[in-house]
Amino acid sequence: MEFFVYQFQLFFLVFSRIMGLILTSTFFSSSSINTQTKMGFVFLVTIVIFPLVYPLLPIVPEFTANYVLLALGEGLVGAAIGISVTIAFSVFQLAGQFFTVQMGFGASEVFDPMSQYSLPLMGQYLYLIFVLVFLGMNGPALILKEIFHSFELVNFQSLLNWQIVNSKYGLIYTFSNLFVVGIKIAIPIIGTLLLISITLGLLGKAAPQMNLLMIGFPISITTGFVVILLLLPAIIHFISIYVEQVVANIWYLMVDISNG
Length: 260
Fold this sequence. Notes:
α1 (about 1-25) runs parallel beside α3 (about 65-90). The chain has one domain. The protein has a two-stranded antiparallel sheet with strand order 1-2. The chain has ten helices and two strands; from the N terminus they run ααααββαααααα. The protein is mainly α.
């Protein structure tokens, strides 16, 4: 009986870490997925991964309070990985925010059922493209693969060395890179819309009788969508490279945390 209790305690440690990831990571944490489904998925993944990570698990403390703290620490490790993934993948919503107003959609927002808050229209459009490419790349499996590697590299004690913040691939780098990548995605569209605005300004000076307010918005919206359609193959290619880069950065971050 004691053997089964001990194995269950180890099983719950793995369950806690995977639950922390699922509840915080992009796509998995969607509020449109009910809690029962999430917990069932966590339980299924734990069953699959438990025999693989069993030799890497810590010794179960004798005192209940120490075990509870250890389980909470495992959950925090999974949550830290999930938050890093979510921040990195928010870049596409941010990129859409940069040119939504210039296109004429500044007053329009859509409710995102995955994140449960309103987003700019073009940010949601780019994010949906990302989700489709992410699923096509088997992205959820890549994230779960990283949680498996985390058992080899990261524990709660190593998380306390603050490398998750101070590392070259830590949260500070992720936040700063978020704006850089967002600008890279949005700059072709912003540049084109800027040229449209300059052209309309020159037309307003040359022909003041023209009602540029009536024709300006349709031109900006149409041009914006045309540019996005022309850039769509490049955007899809960029997303595939970016997802691989994010997964690699999470690996490097875990290595830095492990090395202290």
